[in-house]
Structures are given as C-alpha cells and as structure tokens.
C-alpha cells in the first residue's frame, strides 16, 4: 500500500507541475513499468508460495503415511515376536514332556533288564535241576538193573543146596510156569509190578511238572523280550520323529528371523533416505542435473520478460502527444495487480478499494504461518 501511495503521489505531483508533456509521459511509463514488474514479482511470489504449500501438504501426507506404515510394521513385528515366543514356549514344553517320557522309558527298560536277568537265572537253575533229575533217573535205572541182577543171583544160590529141593522147586516153577494162574506167581508179579509202576509214575510226574514249569517260564521270557524290543523300537522311532520336527521348527524360525532382519534394515535405509531427501542434504547426481537446467531456463525467461517490458516502456518520439495523454488517463484507472480497466466515470475510491483488496491479510486459519509444520 505504501508503494502505491507513493506512486500515486508522484503521479499527482507530475501532473501538477508545469513540465513538458514528453517528460511527464516518460516518467509515467517508467512508473508503470516499475508497477508492472512489482506486479509480476508478486504473482511469481504467490505462485511460489502456492507450490511451496502444495509441497508442504504433500510432504505432510507422505510423512503421515510413513508414520502409519512404521506403526503398522512395528505392530506386525511385535505380533510376530509374540507368536515366535509362543511357538518357542510350546516347543520347550514339548521337549520337557519328551524328556520326561524318555526318563520313564529308561526306568522301564532298566526294570525289564533286571527281570530278564532274573529269568535267565531261573532258567539256569531249572537247567541244573533238569540235569540233576537226569542223573537221578540214571541212578534209579542203575539201581533197578542191579536189583534185577541181585534177585537173579539170589534165586540161583537158593536153588543150589539140594538137588532134590531144586528139582522140586524147578518142578514147582515149571508147574507155576505151566500154570500161570497159581497164587504164588501172581503175588510176586503183583508186588514187582506195583513197585515199578509207583517209581515210574513218580519220575514221570516230576518230569512233566518240571517240563510245564520250563515251558511257562520260556513263554514269559519270550513275551518280555518281545515287549522290551517293541518298546525300544517305539522309543527310537518317537525320538527320531521328535528330533526331525524340532529341527524343522528351528530352521523355520531361523528363516523368519533372517527375513525380519532384512525387512528392518530395508525400512531403516528407506527412512534415512526420506529424512535426507526432506532436509535436502543429499541429492543424487540425476536430481542435481535435472534441477540445474530448470533454474537456468527460469532465469532466462525472467530476463527476456524484463527486457520486453523495458523496450515496451520506452517512449516513441513520433507518437502524438494527444494519444499519450489518452493513454496516461487510461493508465491511471488500470489495476496494477490484475490489469482490469476502469473507465473515466468510475470513482477513484472504488478503484483504490479494488487494488487494496488484492493485498488483504490472509485468514488466520488458512495462513501459511499457522499451517506451517516443522518436519523432522
């Protein structure tokens, strides 16, 4: 507003002073050129402010997006860490359970081994008892054979004293042989048969009893050995499967950890690059090369426009003075900001109000100072 007032005062002073028309027109055109340049500078500054505001909004939006992405990624990392911790806890519980089952199975195997030793000891005792029974049977058979031989010798000795008695006894024996149903022969044969049957029955009963005991113990040993073998195989199979599962889970957890570390490093580098890009500390060579010609072209355009304005503002001596006066009167009612033309009938106050409306203060809510945000 101060510059416009000064320009208007200068115009009034120029109009009031009695000078040559050409000098007045030249000063007027010089003032008009100055006002036009100021107008263009203000427009360029406004455009620059708009671009800066747009860039500021864009950067704030990107910053919010990055913050939301970082928050979501941190939440995902925390969730993944919690899931991994839960999996590790479950695996540790499973390992503890497997160790407990392993200890129980070891104890059971020790018990089975002791029982197996006891059974082998029993078998050894039974084999010794069987050998003893065999020796007893051989002794009994020897005694029986000796008894038969002794009885035959005694019978021969009893027949030798008297020939008559021997003849009689031989006759009696022959008679007894001829008569098998005689009472003496029946009594002797019955006593011998009863004693032999009792001995043989006792021996046979003992052998059968020992045989059944041996068969039962052998069957028990076979069952125990088969059970212990099956238990051992199951334990080995279970241990192998558990080890394979644990190895697989461990490898998967290592892969997840490597992926998480790679993502974390990539996110850190991206955030560092973004902060440096916002601050403008580090620009790549391509960006620098692209930014240089744009600045030079803008400077060239500005210089060309200023030259054209300067050439346009120089007065021509051949132009008629009346035309200059008309242009001067028309230029007094042209808005220096928007270029709107006002006629002679429009009052000066309305023209001044129109020009001052271009320089109204921004609203506090939409001002650049209030909407400014420091980005770190």
From TrEMBL:
Its keywords, alphabetically, are: Coiled coil, Metal-binding, Zinc, Zinc-finger
All copies of domain UBZ1-type, residue ranges? 333-359
The family database entries (InterPro entries) matched by this protein are listed as: CALCOCO1/2_Zn_UBZ1
Region feature Disordered, mapped onto this chain: 143-188
Q: Where is the composition biased (Polar residues)?
A: 143-167
Q: Does the keyword Thylakoid apply?
A: no
Per its UniProt entry, which superkingdom is the organism in?
Answer: Eukaryota
Q: Name one GO molecular function term.
A: zinc ion binding
- Where, if anywhere, are coiled coils annotated? 35-108
Q: Enumerate composition-biased segments (Basic and acidic residues).
A: 168-178
Stated name of the protein: UBZ1-type domain-containing protein
Which species is the source of this protein?
A: Diploptera punctata
Q: What is the lineage of its organism?
A: Eukaryota, Metazoa, Ecdysozoa, Arthropoda, Hexapoda
